[in-house]
Amino acid sequence: MSLLQWKKDYAVGVDAVDHEHREMIELINGLYDNLMKADVEVSVAEFLGEVYAKIVAHFALEERIMRERGYDQFAEHKADHERLLDDIREIMDDYEIRGAFEEEALAERLTSWFGDHFKTMDSRLHKHLG
Ligand SMILES: [Fe+2]
Ligand SMILES: [Fe+2]
Question: Is the per-residue pLDDT at 128 higher than 90?
């Protein structure tokens, strides 16, 4: 079972962006598959660290474009990115402190965040900048 599922309503209507988002979801699912495979040695901490890194890379790309193009809602958009990163760091800290990792909690968090953010912030961004 994949950790995350692409949903039709994730689409922002710009092919390159949808492709980039799909790719991020696939990368996260690939990392999760590795974590679940008994014959591959991946720790939960490594898995979470890599998921975090993939998302950071995507956000960095968007933020660079927004900065370069003088996007009017840069601050709000970046703040929303930060919110998700904070949530993931919280899950990572939790794992370190309690040794517990709830994959459902991570999946739920990412699914609802992607749903909201792609539909609102990212779709506005890409409509504005073309
Ligand atoms: Fe995005
Ligand atoms: Fe974004």
Answer: no
